Amino acid sequence: MIGEPYLKKNSLEINSKLAELWQSLITKGLDKESKRGIVEKIPCMTNCTLNAPKLNHEITAILSSNARTRDIKLSEKQDQIGLVISNLNIVLSDLIKKKDKENIDVISDSIRLLCDLHYMESATRRAVILPGLNKNMKEALDETQITNFLFGGEISSVLKRLKDLERSKKGLLTPLSYWRPSPPMSTPYQPRGGQRGNYLSRIKSQQRRYKTFKILNQLELLP
To answer: Which PANTHER family does this UniProt record tie to the protein (predicted)?
Structure first.
């Protein structure tokens, strides 16, 4: 009927007190003291990094203060997701020892979804930052892989290659950067006497330069 909530075939009705508690927390959140108490009890995984990836120093240096603050907020949310994953692994490890397959699957599926959410938050952070960078840097950083750092651990070499490429391109285009040739004449003026050879040589040179200019312009290499 219209207005009734959609229920999946495998719906579950939980304990009414738990339902009331979870609903309250979803709408109001945890108070700071309660959250701090929970966080302090959760152990840190020594062989699995669950913290939010750090924002690379090279990127932090060029972001506005608002962009940095926004990324900090997003990374704090990621850190909390990591804590939940860590806590659930305590339960999962105990279930594995007991060979409780049914509950292993439940907890394992929950952790997998949380790991995916953790990754999605990293992707969101990158997607928020990249549009504020220039086109070449954006394309270069978009190819990096997320590690303990948001844009990978090799960002210095990536940026160095990008700078070298920009420098090479500028060096190639410097002679043409100030020059925009006119199209060559289809029926050039024919001078008299000995001037004819020099004039035709200049026309051919102009035609070659104009052809080069058109190619570079089509490739969008001219500044």
So the answer is: APPLE DOMAIN-CONTAINING PROTEIN, TRANSPOSABLE ELEMENT P TRANSPOSASE_THAP9 CONSERVED DOMAIN-CONTAINING PROTEIN
Distance, in Å, from the CA atom of 155 to the CA atom of 158, rounded to the nearest integer, reads 5
Q: What pLDDT is attached to residue 47?
A: 92
Per-residue pLDDT tens over the stretch 123-159: 999 999 999 888 888 888 888 999 999 999 888 888 7
Place of tokens 């270069």: 140
pLDDT, the chain, mean:
81
Higher local confidence (pLDDT), 59 or 193: 59
Beta-bridge partners for 54:
149
3-state secondary structure of 184: coil
171's tokens: 């060096």
Letter for the amino acid at 85?
I
> How many other CB atoms are there within 10 angstroms of residue 70's CB atom?
15
What's the CA gap between 38 and 75, in Å, rounded? 19
What pLDDT does residue 126 have? 96
The CB density around residue 55, as the number of other CB atoms within 10 Å, is: 21
Rounded to 5°, angle at Cα 154 from 151 and 160:
105
Tokens describing residue 167: 């420098």
Please give the Cα distance from 27 to 129 (Å, whole number): 29
Q: What is this structure's pTM?
A: 0.69
DSSP state of 132: G
Q: Which of 42, 117, 192 has its CA nearest to residue 200?
A: 192
Helical segments of 64-154, H only: 65-98, 101-129, 135-142
